[in-house]
Amino acid sequence: MEYERMISPIDLKVPFEEYSKEQAEEYFQWFMTQIEHRIQVLDLYIKKEGEEIEFDYTPASLIPLWRWYEKHIVEEKVPLVEYIQEIRSQPKWMREWIPRRRISLRKTMIFGSDIAVYFAEVVRKNSNGKIYWGYFTRPKNMEGANQPVLMGFRAKITLEPYGIIHVCTMDSAEQKKETRLFDLYNVWREDIV
Question: What is the pTM of this model?
């Protein structure tokens, strides 16, 4: 069963940090029209697999969703040529930390991107209107620049949902924890002004 991919109107081969202001705005406006559809795609896929998860935007809904997702985490070996290039591009002291395995983009993060959207919506919808979608263009080297993020947190921090889900995915590849996303929600909830 094929999972419907999210196809951006902007060339995603260009890293977000290289987007112009106009591209960032165009991507953001398009992304906002995709939120509900992406959650529906995820819900439908899970149902076709014979599972039932209530996408009711409650923090508790994150637990069965993450439990389902952890069963779909696939790691793959980094091709030798890529691994050698990565090793050579790093200082000697870092080389031993470069992993030979990575999370599969095609088999895992395809779901993770939509889980990121749902997670962000759970945070937003449970914030009493304090948290909202937005984007920033400067500084370009900051995590989340030129892409949709959640804003309105204490100390002007932003939540970049894709990066968060990627880190959680890597953690769950090492050790499963069905409450990982729920626990993370509670951490972010503390930063709502």
Answer: 0.88
